[in-house]
Amino acid sequence: MFPRPLNPHKVGEREINSSKVGKLTTLHNALTLLAPSPNFWEKGLGMRAMRIKPEVRKLALQTARHLRKNQTDAEKIFWQHVRNKNFKGLKFRRQKPVFYEYNQRQKFFICDFICPKAKLIIEIDGGIHEKQKEYDKHRKEIIQLKQFKILRFKNEEILNNIDEVFNKIEECLFKTKD
């Protein structure tokens, strides 16, 4: 029923030696290459390659619920502006788990806001993100592998200049390709 996941070590029906695949970056080697899925939300950001273990899914959903209940002021303000298709008629979701595989282990992280139609993820960064730049870089690479755009804003930008934030989002969404 669903398309089979892509295997970087297969061409057609014959296996090829992994040494002939070529050297990819560590992240690309560790991540499972994923194929598009017709069921966007069940397979993690429109990608399909692994069946999410129930305990991983349960933990991700509990974490997302906790984060939705304990939003920062900046997240609350942003959510009020984008909920119910208030921004350009686009549907945004908040605190959405993103599943991936790393070193043969299923993992996830929670993105702050996601617009699946526009393939856009919005991250609102507080002070903690100054201390976890490497982790954020890793998340950004995973998101880009899944062919999503990511925009990051600081809490202060949301609190002090929300109009400029939405101008940047609009610019990202509607810029024309030359």
TrEMBL record:
Residues 61-172 form the DUF559 domain. SUPFAM superfamilies: Restriction endonuclease-like. It holds the Pfam family DUF559. PANTHER family: BLL0828 PROTEIN (PTHR38590:SF1). This is DUF559 domain-containing protein.
